[in-house]
Every structure is written in C-alpha cells, then in structure tokens.
Amino acid sequence: MEKYLALIGLLACSTLHANNIQVSTPTLENNTGTTVDIRFDASWENSWRGGPVVNWDAAWIFAKVRLSSGVWQHVRLEATGHSAPTGTQIDVGLVSPGSTYNSSTNPVVGVYLLRNAISYGSLTATGVQLRWNYVAQGIGALNDVTELRVFAIEMVYVNQGAFAMGVTGLGAVYSHPTNSDPYTVTSEAAINVGTTAGYLYYAEGGGSSGDRGGPVPAAFPKGFNAFYCMKYEVSQQGYVDFLNTLTYTRQVTRTATPPSSAAGTGALISTNADRNGIDVSTPGVNPGTAAVYACNLNGNGVYGEAADGKDIACNHLSIFDLWAYLDWCALRPMTELEFEKACRGPLAPVANEYPWGTGVATTGYSLANAGTANEGIATQYSSTVGNVVWDNTSVNFDGPLRVGAFAANAGNTGRVSSGGSYYGIMELAGNVNERAITIGDLSGRAYTGTHGNGELANNGNADPATWSAATAATGYRGGGWDNFAAGRMQTSDRGLVTYVRLDRYVDSGGRGVRTAP
User: Fold this and answer.
1) What is the mean pLDDT of residues 211-229?
2) Are residue 152 and residue 241 in the same domain, yes or no?
3) Residue 285 gets which letter from DSSP?
4) Dist CA 373 CA 140 (whole Å)
5) Is residue 316 part of a domain?
6) 177: left (phi over 0), alpha (psi -120 to 50) or beta
7) Among candidate residues 157, 178, 213, the one where a domain is terminated
8) Which of 204, 212, 442, 453 places its Cα 20 to 30 Å from the Cα of 293?
9) Mapping DSSP to helix (H, G, I), strand (E, B) and coil, where does residue 128 land?
10) Residue pLDDT, tens place only, 8-21
11) Per-residue pLDDT tens digits for 330-361
C-alpha cells in the first residue's frame, strides 16, 4: 500500500496514511551540487523471504518532486550509489529490465527494498538512501524543488518457472483436444492457439472468452518469467495520493466529478456509494489550481480520519483510471496468464479451484472497526474455506473490504482462510475485479509488457502505446464484491476476459505488476 511524507524544512510537509507499509519523513543529504541522497526509513508487517518455494515480498519505492512551477515530476534515480540498511537489499528495477542504464532513455524509476536472507515478521529498514542526479533530470538547483514525496507499494515476487492453466470455468484454456487437460506454459516463447494437438485452446463460453485466435506472440508476458505483483489491490488512499500529484487538467480526466466541485463531493462517484469515500477536500480552480482529495468514508467533512476508509480497495475505477495509476507508479497491467500463475503457482490445477484452493465462504460477514486500518470480520469468518468478499458475503456492507483484512483475522489458519494465493498475494478473487489483458483478442495479444515511466500524458491518460490498444482486451478475472456467481472467482474461469466495461463500475478496481529485473 502507499504512503508518503513530504520533506520537512527545505520543502513543504504533509502526511498521509497507508495500510501496513510506512515511510518516514524523507530528508535530502550529501548534496554534491549534482547528486543528492533521499534518506528515509521504511517498515511493514508480515514481511518474509522463504516459504515452500523461496519467494519474498518487497516494497516498490519511487519518488515525486514538485517544482516551483507547481508541476510534479517523477524522480529518475541513479543506477548505483544506493544504500540498504542491515538485513535488506535494494534491487534496481529498470524500465526495460536487462537494458543498459541511461538517465534519459532508460532511467531507474524506482527500486525494490527487500530482505536479503530467509526470515519472517515485521521489517524495519532504518536509513534507506536513494541517489538522485537532479541535474541530469534538468533541475539546476535543489531550491527549485518545493516538495518531495516518497511512495512505497507492497509487492510479492512470483518466481520464474513453468505453470499449468485451465481445468474449470467458462472459457478455461486446455491442451487440445482434451478440455480437461491443462495447458502448461514452459517458456516466454510464442504460444500456438488452435485445434492442432498440443496447442492451447478454449471454448467460447459465455460469449466473452475470446476469439480463439493466435498465436500469442513471444513479446506478450506469459508469466513464465519472474515478476512482481502488487500484494493488494489499489487502495482508496493510494488513489488519493495519485490524484494529489496531478494538475487540474489531469484530475478532470481521472475523476467523475469536476475538481472544482464543492468540498465533500465524491471524486469517483458523487454520492460516495458502495464504500467509496474519496472526496474533494479543497476545490480546485480551473485551470491553474489542482484540487486536493482525501478519504471521507463517514461523510462528516473531517478528512483523513482513522475511520475514513483509506485502506479499502478502490472501486469505481475505469480501466483508464487504473492504467493511469499504474503508469504513474511505473508499473504495468498484468496479463491473464500472469493472473493464473499468481494464483496457483506451479501447482497442478484442480477442479473448482480458487486462488486459495477449494471451498468458498457463503454467509454474510459483519464488520469490526469499519473503515479503519484494522477493519476486519467480526462474525462469520471461516477457518475451513476461503474467505472472500462477493455477493453472498457482502450483504451487510455492500462494497469492498479493507485490503488484507482476511489475513489479519485472529481466526486465520493459513492460506485457505486468508484467501491468499500460492505466493501470498491477497484478494485475487472477490473484493474488486482484477483487470488482466487477455489473449482472447487481437489487440490484447499485441501487448508487450512495457512499463509505465512515472509520467502521464498531458490529458491524464497512461501513454504506453500497447496499453491503449488493448482497451477492449482487458476484461475481468477473479470477480468482485458485487459478483453473484461463485464460478466467476475461480482461478481458470475466463467467462469475462473480453467483457468491455469502460465506465467506473461498482466493483471495478485492480492492481499492477512489474517484470522482475
């Protein structure tokens, strides 16, 4: 989840809240007149390196600066010179992994902070330092920087390796000619699609499973190569942080109501329905002054309170909103193959399988500590089947839940009850729909996995070309809180992969990934 604190003293200071991960107030140190070190502490709970297959979680960390002109820029970091505290390491993630570093054409747009040895529990990294060449970024002097924000998003490493897809659900893929035989992805090479023996194929189930065309090109990310996946869906505070670094013009594009709307107006839905509490807190002035947004779930006009739903998964996001957010974070959309890999890992598919295994909770939950960072399930939490927010279990609150809530419950007995995936990724089913680029559409198959660079187009849209082309090829996987069919949440179900929904719907949200360096 996302957190920022702005620099005190030289720069303006403000504070936001985040779930789990915390980033202390950053300082600028060791200014050489060309480079400077961004120093801060980072901590989060339930961190790990290890498990049945050695994987880990990490923080994807990036920074933004506001210049005296009022414009925000994404910080382009150096490839070397960073410092990780004892017990941790910093991995540089390039825009084009494996490419030669270049501060202009292939900059370092963020880093991963992770454990450097097998261990588990809360992680505190004191004194993280990231080196920034501000002159190379076109900033002549630090006094042109009026504000600095450091953001951190919890990610999970998905290991390189083969995995199998299919078995259960509308449009589930299989190895032709037997629809009960999983299809195994063994490399990132092109995948043949069709009715030849051994090719990937699928039925056109439900009308939105795809065109059964192919091949799937080599450049399309298939999940064989290692990647990082956001541990949680985008939270409402995460989207607030995003909005608050945009110009007025870009805010117009990324919200449903004008930035000039009165304080208390909902940003993504004016009535703050469906547990979406993002409000205008300070109206903007067209065209020069951007609005300020904040969470206000309880509607009392006091913004950013403990019970204002900052950690609830962000719904009412259009596909364009999600992609803009991912571009801003320097992440990218995931593909539907990566979705299945993230759910089950290398395990063999089984019938009626969900991301946590089999079995699904069906009784309505009641909430404890509603809207807070500790929001959770007060009653009907299951210790034997997968806990998930869908139509049957959300009847008492009608909206998404705080991300990670199931894992935090005192009755949690492991992967199944927490609703976690093989790798420890949370809420891949239910809560809000996952948006994954499909192989079932020609424009989807043209997707090459280009990462965002931290900067949006002037109109507020994401600008990687192969994202925009795939608009109609990014349907739903995993189901959402308003989903009434348990089958839509099954790992292999592809019944809605080409379902075109461009508006800000009640259970549309998502998360992003990034190819591992």
Assistant:
1) 97
2) no
3) B
4) 41
5) no
6) alpha
7) 157
8) 453
9) strand
10) 223 332 222 335 79
11) 999 999 999 999 999 999 999 999 999 999 99
- Tell me, yes or no, whether 26 lies in a domain: yes
CB neighbour class for 463 (10 Å; exposed up to 12, middle 13-18, buried from 19): middle
The helix/strand/coil state of 239 is helix
Q: Structure tokens of 42?
A: 């980072």
- The residue with tokens 């897809």 is 165
Distance separating the N- and C-terminal Cα atoms of the chain: 21
Same domain, yes or no, for 151 and 243?
A: no
Backbone angles phi, psi at 91, to 5 degrees: -110, 130
pLDDT-derived band at 53, boundaries 50, 70, 90: confident
The DSSP bridge pattern shows strands 434-437 and 334-335 to be parallel
CA separation (Å) from 176 to 171, 179, 400?
13, 7, 38
Q: What is the pLDDT of residue 517?
A: 82
Domain check: are 27 and 117 in the same one? yes
pLDDT for the residue 198:
98
CA distance 184 to 489: 21
Together in a domain, 142 and 257: no
Which distant-in-sequence residues (6+ apart) come within 8 Å of 171 by Cβ? 202, 203, 204, 205, 206, 208, 209, 210, 440, 493, 494, 495, 497
Boundary-marking domain end, from 124, 157, 190: 157
| Beta bridge partner(s), residue 49 | 56, 119
* Residue 248 lies in domain: 236-295
Taking only the tens place, the pLDDT of each residue in 230-283 is 999 999 999 999 999 999 999 999 999 999 999 999 999 998 899 999 999 999
CA–CA separation, 232 vs 220, rounded Å? Answer: 24
Residue 404 CB-half CA count within 13 A: 23
Residue 406's pLDDT band, with cuts at 50, 70 and 90, is: very high
Q: What are phi and psi for residue 405, nearest 5 degrees? A: -65, -35
Residue 18 exposed, middle or buried by CB count within 10 Å (0-12, 13-18, 19+): buried
CB 338 within 8 A of CB 514: no
- What is the pLDDT, as a whole number, of residue 248? 96
282 in any annotated domain: yes
Q: pLDDT tens across 448-457, in order?
A: 999 999 999 9
The verdict on 50 and 137 lying in the same domain is yes
Kindly state whether residues 145 and 251 are assigned to the same domain.
Answer: no
Strand partners, 152: 61
| Beta strand 108-115 pairing with 55-67 | antiparallel
Residue type, 269: I
- Over residues 155-183, the pLDDT tens digits come to 999 999 999 999 989 999 999 999 999 99
Q: In 222-265, which ranges are E strands?
A: 227-230
Whether the CB-CB separation of 105 and 53 falls below 8 Å is answered with no
Predicted model pTM: 0.95
Helix or strand holding residue 122 (H, E):
strand 119-133
Give which of 296, 279, 320 is closest to 510, Cα–Cα.
320
Average pLDDT, the chain: 92
Number of compact structural domains in the chain = 2
